[in-house]
Amino acid sequence: MKLLDHLQTELTTLDAQSLLRRRRTTDTMCAPRTQVDGKPMLAFCSNDYLGLAAHPAVIAAMQEGVALYGAGSGASHLISGHSRAHAVLEDRLASFLAPHLEQAQALYFCTGYMANLAVISALAAASKSSTDVFSEALNHASLIDGARLSRATVKVYPHSDVAALESLLCASNAATKIVVTDSVFSMDGDLAPLPALLALCEQYDAWLVVDDAHGFGVLGEHGRGALEHFNLRSPNLVYMGTLGKAAGVAGAFVAAHATVINWMVQKARPYIYTTAAPPAIAHALLTSLDLIQGEEGAIRRANVQNLIRQMQQGLHLHHWQLMASSTAIQPILIGDNARTMRIAADLYAQGYWVGAIRPPTVPVGTARLRITLSGSHTSDDVAQLVSAMNQLEAAQ
């Protein structure tokens, strides 16, 4: 068939460019010490930043949730799928973020991707005339797709370029203005200049949508994420946090002023027209929040910071570049796709599982190893990886 032949040709082209994606299968829980395709590995590629995915208390809460609520929700939230567990989780999230959001309420979603599609499209739908979305150049794909699907005019500003964003805002005559940014950029590990962005949004009467997927639970003294890290509070803020990374389970949420959340319940199609996540997941997340807010969460966040310093001080690179990042995401820039894949394969052969990131996820010529650190990693784990990395780099 010509249709299949065309697809196979395109797949062959991707393979020749070292861009073909392949999956590996894990046989154990998400944890630093895991088994992948039958082989024991030390993993540095998970977004389980606090190590809660395999926490005994979270596992027990999931089991309890299944016993209380069963395996599934049975319908969308607006039909019959909104359980007590969902409601309590939303209340807990709103209370957790109340120091940073006026009249805070929260809305739980099955995935962060759905949450981002929902929030941008719903805010854009509030305008009877025109909407401009101002999107950070390095935003996650879900934010890019959300902006496209909103049918608004999309204007992209360069990475962390506050002056360029102000010029775009100043020139905009749109009735609704929405600035959209990651907080922690998932492939670089750096932080958006959120205080400056929020000041612009307040000046130009714009929403600031912050995707804190890689900051929630990890950043801030109490794990409240980028808003706490920068000590921000404003009615212009619309905050998205994921619950399958530092929280260790699944799903995501949008938190904002109660009026924003009520509007989303009315207009956010990815929320209205999908089956609610199993209530057991929401029930387990209540325990995750307890851990994030408590002493154990503080200890795990401190461990992550110690491991970041250990890695940065221990790596001695001459051919590769450790990118500037103060977060659990520690990327090493290699450049060439094939070389990056070979290095990742060499590490894998030694028992270290590190993600190899290539275009189109990152710009052409900037392929990299994406090392992620967890509160469950030990100093010895990091020392082993650093030693292997230094030896491989010296052999280049």
Please explain how this structure is put together:
This protein has 396 residues and is an alpha/beta fold. The protein has 2 domains: 22-51 and 295-394, Aspartate Aminotransferase, domain 1 (Alpha-Beta Complex); 56-293, Aspartate Aminotransferase, domain 2. 44% of the residues lie in helices and 18% in strands. It contains 15 helices and 14 strands. The protein has helices at residues 2-16, 56-69, 77-81, 84-97, 112-125, 141-149, 162-171, 194-203, 226-229, 258-267, 269-272, 279-293, 295-314, 337-349, 379-394; strands at 33-36, 39-43, 104-109, 131-136, 153-157, 176-182, 207-211, 237-242, 252-257, 321-322, 329-335, 352-353, 355-357, 367-372. A 7-stranded mixed beta sheet has the order 3-9-8-7-6-4-5, with helices on both faces. Strands 10-11-14-13 form a 4-stranded antiparallel beta sheet, covered by helices on one side. A 3-stranded mixed beta sheet has the order 1-2-12. It is globular and about 60 Å long. The chain starts with a helix and ends with a helix. The mean pLDDT is 97.
Set out the fold topology.
Elements: H1 2-16, E1 33-36, E2 39-43, H2 56-69, H3 77-81, H4 84-97, E3 104-109, H5 112-125, E4 131-136, H6 141-149, E5 153-157, H7 162-171, E6 176-182, H8 194-203, E7 207-211, H9 226-229, E8 237-242, E9 252-257, H10 258-267, H11 269-272, H12 279-293, H13 295-314, E10 321-322, E11 329-335, H14 337-349, E12 352-353, E13 355-357, E14 367-372, H15 379-394
Helix pairs in contact: 2-12, 4-12, 5-6, 5-10, 12-13, 13-15
